[in-house]
Amino acid sequence: MAVYIVIGLVLLAGLAAAYRSLGSVAAQVVDPASLMRAVLDGAATAAALPVTREAARVSRRRLEACAQQLEAVDEGALEGSAADARALLQTALDELGWWARICESEPHAAATGLRRACDGLREDALRCLDEAGRLLAAGSSSDSAEVGERLL
After folding, report:
1. Interior/surface letters 51-85, b for 16+ CB within 10 angstroms, e for the rest
2. What is the pLDDT, as a whole number, of residue 144?
């Protein structure tokens, strides 16, 4: 009987430890600006890969990871240029995701219409990434200026 009690306590302790370790990851505070910069860098890297089926598959996976990271940024907590940058990043990730899916498909190489559509999606997404980068850079410089003003 004592053996069952010891086993039950060990299992209970293991479940409690697993619950605490899984819950601690979700409680981490995320800096939205640095996370959006990381998403911007990841998306730009994925868009820079050459247009082959295998590279498109790698790009699509990277873009999906970037989209998951961007979901961690609370849209309601952002104001001004940060909210605009998040919207632009979301648009760029959506367009690059479609770009990668089309490039991954079999008829992409043969159909000129699909190639033109892919080029248009990629170019528009790169414009969105550039604008988001400018907004994030402007936001970080205004944040540092606000900190400097508070110190004075």
Report:
1. beeebbeebbebbeebbebbeebeeeebeebbbbb
2. 45
